[in-house]
């Protein structure tokens, strides 16, 4: 298996089997078993392998294809693989439970998400609490005993795009724990009785691979308020869902037992008022993830756009830009900054459209330097990228926070 990290690039042509491989900056891909075939293709097309060694690899490949992709070298020691999973549990030889466990094992994050605490702007209280619950007990177990035992469960709530999933990725990257990334599709089955079995097997796996973190995104889709209209059409599915929720609550209670030591549940939701009250009671800590403050908005804009123009490094316009995006989430700001960064590219493409293709690489770089992002670009982009959060949702979240977790409001 070849680990390919997008960094220093070289142009290649990929055969049709790799045409659909989408490579993006700062992302990783794995070409499973691709190295031998790439080397063979190099020889067949009289292309030499650029470099292949113990510490780094670059593969150069040119075959007849219209698809162009960028593939780069990666120093092997820059990629720190996550610890290999230990032997798979036997489940007393039960083939059904083993099959369910195999389906859940796919949700174990085995690649480093490459999100560090420092990459997350603001949210200092949320980061402190998650470190206190997961990271620090692994480093200093003697401090977290008895009444000081680590928190077993944390609920992150807030409007979409504020960083709840990003916090979970940082937990996965910064901890040595086995990380289960769970959604409704992971544990909801169309077969009668399988959903509650999946919940039970999930926690069995978490105990087996402890220390472990179970992250349940959009948890309201799994454990909303029990009860319903009672119509015959929905009676069966409602009963099935109730059994799954009951099993989840039982497993949450079991987190306090000695056998569940090292298992932590992290859940995220945009709609905390839809959650079952019994589930809320079992979440030891609830954290409101707010919209970014003006200072945080300025930091986000700086991190995204400083490389494109000095006006976003510091100074008056950075403060103005942060004020202009009041009410935007972190995700909204990133989308806006991408739109801003594309505007000089569009100007350049419009200027060279009448020519036979783009200028060479050196002249293109010069054109980019002569066309930095401007303050006008930012102001115009705001008119095309609106914030995705409604005032009504924010107000309702604040009221729920005041009533259910006043310490974090």
TrEMBL record:
High-level lineage: Eukaryota, Sar, Stramenopiles, Ochrophyta, Bacillariophyta
GO cellular component term, pick one: spindle pole
Family: Belongs to the AAA ATPase family.
InterPro entries: AAA+_ATPase, AAA_lid_3, ATPase_AAA_core, ATPase_AAA_CS, MT-severing_AAA_ATPase, P-loop_NTPase
Xref: PANTHER family: AAA DOMAIN-CONTAINING (PTHR23074), KATANIN P60 ATPASE-CONTAINING SUBUNIT A-LIKE 2 (PTHR23074:SF78)
Localization in the cell: Cytoplasm, Cytoskeleton, Spindle pole
Main location: cytoplasm
Protein name, UniProt field: AAA+ ATPase domain-containing protein
Keyword Isomerase: yes
GO MF: ATP binding; isomerase activity
Annotated ranges, domain AAA+ ATPase: 150-293
Source taxon at top rank: Eukaryota
């Amino acid at each position: 298996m070849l680990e390919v990290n997008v960094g220093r690039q070289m142009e290649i042509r990929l055969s049709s089997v790799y045409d659909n491989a989408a490579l993006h900056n700062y992302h990783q891909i794995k070409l499973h078993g691709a190295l031998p075939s790439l080397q063979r293709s190099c020889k067949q097309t009289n292309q030499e392998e650029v470099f292949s060694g113990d510490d780094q690899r670059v593969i150069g490949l040119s075959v007849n294809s219209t698809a162009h992709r960028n593939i780069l070298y990666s120093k092997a020691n820059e990629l720190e693989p996550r610890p290999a999973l230990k032997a798979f549990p036997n489940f007393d030889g039960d083939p059904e439970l083993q099959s369910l466990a195999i389906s859940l094992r796919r949700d174990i994050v085995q690649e480093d998400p490459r999100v560090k605490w420092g990459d997350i702007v603001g949210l200092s209280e949320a980061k402190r609490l998650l470190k206190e619950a997961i990271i620090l007990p692994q480093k200093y177990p003697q401090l977290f005993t008895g009444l000081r035992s680590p928190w077993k469960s944390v609920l992150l709530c807030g409007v979409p795009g504020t960083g709840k999933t990003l916090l979970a990725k940082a937990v996965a990257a910064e901890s040595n724990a086995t990380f289960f990334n769970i959604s409704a599709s992971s544990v909801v089955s169309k077969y009668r009785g399988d959903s509650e079995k999946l919940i039970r097997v999930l926690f069995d796996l978490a105990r087996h691979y402890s220390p472990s973190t179970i992250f349940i995104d959009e948890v309201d889709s799994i454990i909303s308020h029990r009860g319903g209209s009672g119509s015959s059409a929905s009676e069966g599915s409602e009963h099935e869902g109730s059994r799954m929720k009951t099993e989840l609550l039982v497993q949450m209670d079991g987190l306090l037992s000695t056998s569940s030591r090292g298992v932590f549940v992290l859940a995220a939701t945009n709609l905390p008022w839809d959650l079952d009250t019994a589930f809320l009671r079992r979440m030891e800590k609830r954290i409101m993830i707010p919209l970014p403050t003006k200072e945080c908005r300025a930091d986000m804009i700086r991190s995204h756009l400083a490389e494109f123009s000095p006006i976003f490094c510091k100074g008056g316009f950075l403060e103005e830009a942060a004020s202009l995006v009041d009410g935007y989430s972190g995700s909204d700001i990133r989308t806006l900054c991408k739109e801003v960064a594309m505007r000089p590219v569009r100007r350049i493409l419009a200027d060279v459209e009448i020519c036979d293709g783009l200028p060479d690489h050196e002249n293109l770089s010069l054109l980019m330097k002569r066309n930095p992002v401007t303050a006008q670009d930012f102001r115009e982009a705001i008119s095309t990228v609106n914030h995705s959060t409604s005032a009504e949702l924010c107000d309702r979240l604040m009221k729920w926070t005041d009533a259910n977790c006043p310490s974090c409001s």
